[in-house]
């Protein structure tokens, strides 16, 4: 009897507990595929510069260009546009550099940043400032190290060229000694100048006296 009561309780609990809901595959949300109509890319290059732009089939566009402003900083400029759910075209132009991110919209509709995100950004301001300073210092160190390595490579190349020139002179002097000439008195390859025909005096000829 007790076993029957336990079986009934388990059945009731199983009936009361919520069952997982399964959505048929044909009813699941699938993000529509939006093809890219045009795309242009360049970079990233050795100096950190790059640019890209693309146009989508839904009318959205984006373009961005990054250029170094100094050995330690760079500037990013770009824009993007899309159609809002209410059918309005939204265009945003932005600039990101060492002074932060700034955006403006000629259509007057820049997406608003949530309040909690603004609070987090304000709280993280000192951390961002410290990170920017550390990045600047690290960039200066890397730049100075690269300059030093380049100078060392240039000095090494110049030293190797001087050694090569000295070795060539020593070999030339040894060849001259083998043929019995002094390196200091070796013949020159200078070509004797040809006299100008108008400046050469004609030789005077004398006829034979007849007896």
Write up what this structure looks like.
This protein has 211 residues and is α+β, with helices and mostly antiparallel strands. The chain folds into 2 domains: 32-111, no CATH class; 113-182. Helices cover 37% and strands 22% of the residues. The chain is built from 3 helices and 6 strands; from the N terminus they run αββββββαα. The chain has helices spanning 2-16, 115-123, 125-178, and strands at residues 36-42, 50-56, 61-68, 74-83, 89-97, 100-104. A 6-stranded antiparallel β-sheet has the order 1-2-3-4-5-6, with no helix packed on it. The chain is elongated, with a radius of gyration of 43 Å.
Write a compact overview of the structure shown.
This protein is of the alpha+beta class and 211 residues long. It has helices spanning 2-16, 115-123, 125-178, and strands at residues 36-42, 50-56, 61-68, 74-83, 89-97, 100-104. Strands 1-2-3-4-5-6 form a 6-stranded antiparallel sheet, with no helix packed on it.
Which stretches are low in confidence, meaning pLDDT under 50 for 5 or more residues running? none
β-strand percent reads: 15-25%
Distance between the termini: 179 Å
Chain-averaged pLDDT? 74
Helix content: 25-40%
Task: Give the CA-based shape.
Answer: elongated
Number of helices: 3
- Topology as a string of helices (H) and strands (E): HEEEEEEHH
Question: What is the alpha-carbon Rg in Å?
Answer: 43 Å
Main beta-sheet strand count, sense and barrel state: 6 strands, antiparallel
List the strand order in the largest sheet.
Answer: 1-2-3-4-5-6
Number of domains: 2
Number of strands: 6
- Structural class category: alpha+beta
């Amino acid at each position: 009897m007790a076993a029957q009561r336990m079986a009934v309780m388990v059945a009731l609990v199983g009936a009361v507990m919520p069952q997982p809901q399964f959505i048929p595959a044909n009813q699941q949300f699938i993000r529509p595929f939006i093809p890219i109509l045009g795309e242009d890319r360049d970079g990233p290059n050795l100096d950190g510069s790059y640019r890209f732009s693309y146009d989508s089939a839904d009318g959205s566009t984006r373009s961005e260009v990054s250029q170094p402003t100094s050995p330690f900083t760079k500037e990013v400029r770009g824009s993007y546009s899309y159609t809002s759910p209410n059918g309005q075209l939204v265009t945003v132009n932005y600039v990101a550099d060492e002074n932060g991110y700034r955006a403006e919209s000629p259509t007057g509709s820049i997406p608003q940043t949530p309040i909690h995100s603004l609070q987090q950004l304000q709280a993280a301001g000192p951390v961002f400032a410290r990170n920017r300073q550390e990045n600047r210092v690290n960039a200066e160190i890397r730049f100075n190290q690269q300059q030093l390595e380049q100078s060392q490579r240039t000095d090494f190349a110049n030293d190797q060229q001087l050694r090569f020139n000295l070795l060539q002179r020593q070999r030339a002097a040894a060849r001259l000694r083998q043929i019995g000439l002094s390196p200091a008195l070796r013949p020159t390859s200078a070509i004797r100048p040809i006299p100008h025909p108008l400046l050469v005096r004609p030789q005077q000829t004398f006829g034979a006296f007849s007896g």
